[in-house]
Every structure is written in structure tokens, then in C-alpha cells.
Amino acid sequence: MILIFGCGILGQYLLKEVLQNTDEQVLCTYHTQKPQLSCTAGDRVCFQKCDVTSEADLQALSALCAGDRLRVFYCTAYHNIDAVYAHPQQAQKVNVEGLARFLEIVKNIEALYFISTDCVYGESRPDSKPFRETAACAPINAYGRQKLAAEQLVLNRGYHVLRCSLLYGASLDDNRKTFYDKTFAALKAGERVEMIDGLARCALTYSEAAHIIMRLVTEKKELPPVLNICGDSLITKYELGLRIAAAAGASPAQVVKISKEEGNKFFQDKRADVIALDSALLHSVECNLNA
Ligand SMILES: NC(=O)c1ccc[n+]([C@@H]2O[C@H](COP(=O)([O-])OP(=O)(O)OC[C@H]3O[C@@H](n4cnc5c(N)ncnc54)[C@H](OP(=O)(O)O)[C@@H]3O)[C@@H](O)[C@H]2O)c1
């Protein structure tokens, strides 16, 4: 059975891939609100409410999974960078302590793929090469530090860490809207949106990331313990705004470029201006899939 633990935006794209590419049963967990999805027809998917900070919820989940060999996509996170900064202990309970309890309580895990972040690397320097998976990690914000600590728990048990760059795209859940959805709607309505001329990331759409991850885990027996899941080139937030404008059929002039200094005023915790990831290992693994 496949367990999508924390079936938020990425989890829902993974669910779609699982339904399209396997005939396995899927158990999805949600935290606050059960997802409203159009792709869950049939009896292959069931949903279970689970707060990772609740011992009772984890025990109930474990009982529900008893007897099944599990392949887990671990997507749960308290990941808003400024919320982690404002509530570090609450975030630690989810991002690190909750994960630790999950790993102790949930049995029969055959494989686990922990969705991590490029924030664990820290800031790319102008003269440095893109981060390979073996690079030293020096996160510059509390979120990155918590995800790095979480990665260690996962690696200590021999499971896999997938370090995603920025993910963007429309939500599949009628009850939730992403940054992309809101920006798309504003641009389509003829509004202007401000986008920072910085925060460059090797971004992927949710759909691309979920597709890559599914191919890796269904077709490849041996994965490296840590793998970057990223695009090949950097795009700034402003360039992302232009992409969304094009998708919405809006004018590029509606996307207003603002400086990093102006943008940083909205943030509480630090953001790396650039996080360049090396995608060579990802491509070499993907090449082996095709071989
Ligand atoms: N979005 C990005 O750009 C990006 C980039 C790199 C890595 N990632 C990683 O990708 C993963 C998925 O992120 P996403 O973009 O799909 O965001 P998301 O939709 O917010 O997914 C996170 C999930 O964690 C759940 N969650 C939060 N607190 C929880 C708790 N106490 N117990 C159980 N579940 C809880 C959330 O449920 P509620 O919403 O109901 O609380 C949500 O379903 C995360 O691990 C994130 O760190 C995201």
C-alpha cells in the first residue's frame, strides 16, 4: 500500500500519478481539511485525518496500516518560512519531533521518500557552483535548519530524501488555493501584481515534480539516499510572474518588478537570494530508467 502522509498540494499531485501509473491501494492523510479532489473515484483511495503531533492519531494510523507493507511519501511539513520563524517550537513539533514519532510508531515501512527542500543548502554564492547533493549544508533560516534535522532522522533509518526546489502550480483541491492560483486569478482579472526581482530557484511545477518522483520510485530499484528534484536553470520570482501571466493570457506589463530590498520588507526570516541546484545526479538516475 502507498501512504501519502500529508496529502497537501504536492501530495495530491503524487496521488494523481499513483492512480494513473499503479494499481495499488492508497491511504492519504490530511490534517485540517479533507481534500476535495476529482481524481479519487473508485475504492482505491481512502483518507484518514492525522495530526503528526498527536500520539493517538499516529497510533490510529499505525493500526489502520497494520499488515500492509508501506511505501510512504512523507509530505507533511510546517513550511511557511515566516510562520516557522514566528513559532519555532510549534514548527519543531511537526517538522522534527512528529517525524521522529511517526518513524517509531508506523510499522512495516518498506520505503519512505521524505520531501525536503533546497533551503537546507543555504545561499548560493555568486562564484560557487550549483549545490550537488554532497555539498555542505548551511541553512540560513529556521525552516531550513528543521528540515535538515528531519533529513538526518530519515537517512539514519536508510530511507530517501528528495530535496525539492520551489514548486508552483494550480491546486487540485477545490478547498485550497496556492500562491499560483491567487496570482493567476489576479492577473486574469486585469490586476497588477508585484514580483521580486530575485529569489532565484531551479523551480518545477508540482506536476513535473510529482511525475519525476513517481518515475523514480516506481521504475528504479536503487536510488541515492539524497537527490535534488529541480529544474536545470534558475528563475526569479519576477520571471515566475511572467510565466503565470502568460498562462493567464494577461499582459506581461501587469507583472510589476520590485527590488529585493523592497521585497525583503515583507519577510520576517531570511530568504536566500539564489539557491542553484545541480541536477546532474537526477538526470543520471533518469537516464538509467530509460536504459
Ligand atoms: N511548495 C514548495 O515550494 C516546496 C518546495 C520544496 C519543498 N517543499 C516540501 O514539500 C512538501 C509538501 O509541500 P506542499 O507545497 O504540498 O504544501 P502543503 O500543501 O502545505 O503540504 C504540507 C502538508 O502538511 C500538512 N501538515 C501541516 N501540519 C501538520 C500536522 N501537524 N500534522 C499532519 N499534517 C500536517 C498540511 O496540512 P494542513 O494544510 O491541513 O495543515 C499539508 O497537507 C513539504 O514537506 C514542503 O516542505 C515544498
How would you characterize the overall build of this protein?
A 7-stranded parallel β-sheet has the order 3-2-1-4-5-6-11, with helices on both faces. Strands 7-10 form a two-stranded parallel sheet. A two-stranded parallel sheet has the order 8-12. 40% of the residues lie in helices and 18% in strands. The protein has one domain: NAD(P)-binding Rossmann-like Domain (Rossmann fold, 3-Layer(aba) Sandwich), CATH 3.40.50. The chain is of the alpha/beta class. The longest helix has 18 residues, at 88-105. The protein contains 10 helices and 13 strands. The chain binds NADP nicotinamide-adenine-dinucleotide phosphate. The site of NADP nicotinamide-adenine-dinucleotide phosphate has 25 residues, from helix 1 and strand 5. Residues 6-11, 30-33, 50-53, 75-79, 94, 115, 117, 164, 166-167 line the site of NADP nicotinamide-adenine-dinucleotide phosphate.
